[in-house]
Amino acid sequence: xxxxxxxxxxxxxxxxxxxxxxxxxxxxxxxxxxxxxxxxxxxxxxxxxxxxxxxxxxxxxxxxxxxxxxxxxxxxxxxxxxxxxxxxxxxxxxxxxxxxxxxxxxxxxxxxxxxxxxxxxxxxxxxxxxxxxxxxxxxxxxxxxxxxxxxxxxxxxxxxxxxxxxxxxxxxxxxxxxxxxxxxxxxxxxxxxxxxxxxxxxxxxxxxxxxxxxxxxxxxxxxxxxxxxxxxxxxxxxxxxxxxxxxxxxxxxxxx
Length: 256
Hints:
Layout: E1 2-3, E2 7-12, E3 15-20, H1 31-46, E4 52-57, E5 61-63, H2 68-73, H3 77-96, E6 101-105, E7 108-110, H4 112-119, E8 122-126, E9 130-132, H5 146-154, H6 156-164, E10 168-170, H7 171-176, E11 182-184, H8 186-201, H9 205-216, H10 218-236, H11 239-249
Helix pairs in contact: 1-3, 3-4, 3-10, 5-6
């Protein structure tokens, strides 16, 4: 096992377990956390002993999405675009990987956290898990590939509903939409996830890699990320986002 400041990495039964480790902030995505994840996922890709990867979060959340204090501190469109690109690089690493990924969603998966889970090939969720796009509540669009992933999984109409309103899904509701592979009690979640990862680790790796290539279409995904970066950077620097973030931090209703 090794640990960067905000990422924990360990290997079990042919699988790597990668844990986002900012529990005090619900594992919200800072530039440092994203860089640590990209570095760790690259190590998983290089390690021939790693045949599957589990991505999860420490504490009571999977990932609450972008870090709002980071968002509030961005001073220019260039800074905003760089931040969005850094987060998108994590999702791109998962999509491009030749190895199967399992998201173990132990709590909230919001915004970019929701989309990081969707980038994985399987999602195992606690019965207490909640999924929400959340972006529009602070004047933003979905990023980390959400505009590519979500419509492909649930169809355009449901994707618009989840993005525009945005509604919060329970684990069972997410499973009914095909977004979650398995739902488990908290006490059984790690065991069920480990069993799936171990099973994947025993499958033929070349065949699984080719399946991912066909299904994930990494080139189109990357193009979608680039579009998201440009639009999101403009929105981050705009009045709607500033009001949305301020309202959230001040615990009041936004006035758009």
